[in-house]
Amino acid sequence: MSIEIRHVEAQDVSDIKRILTDDSVMLGTMRLPHVANANVEARINTGLGNYKLVAEVDGSVVGICFMSSTPDVPRHNHAGEIDLVAVRSDFQGKGIAKALLGAMLDLCDNWLQLERTGLLVWSDNTHAIELYEAFGFEREGVIRKYARRPGGFVDAVMMGRLSDHHTASDLRVGHQANHSI
């Protein structure tokens, strides 16, 4: 199976709608079961600081990864948030999420020069948590009763990943500068 990672395109709306309304995906997000095409179209539009990748297999989009940042906010332009990683249930467990997340983090680290990438994940989504930890995300806290879902509430785990763009000499220079203030 060959996985192509690419930027989202307007013609992906129906495939993305299929992903967003997949039962296993809906349980892992705060999305509702019925989504209008217009809502999906609005969701995939990109603007400043929004990056949206898709995974395509045999001509169909089977996975999505969205990230947002605030490049126009000087005190927060070093950070981004993974907003969504989702894979159609019939393609889960085949490396799609790993390929999407790897491509998005490459974009964050090497092209956008982000120092921090964060995300929220449901506390019972052990497969996703293991994937995020494999990419260097660490648990930073728990938000109790974060979202409603059938049967009650679910907690969210805050996770963050710091990039290592600094060399040891950069850190020493910064350390000395802090002492001279």
From TrEMBL:
UniProt-listed InterPro entries: Acyl_CoA_acyltransferase, GNAT_dom, N-term/lysine_N-AcTrnsfr
Domain N-acetyltransferase: 3-164
Domain of life of the organism encoding this protein: Bacteria
GO MF annotation: an example: acyltransferase activity, transferring groups other than amino-acyl groups
PROSITE patterns: GNAT
Pfam families for this protein: Acetyltransf_1 (PF00583)
Protein name (record): GNAT family N-acetyltransferase
Organism: Ruegeria atlantica
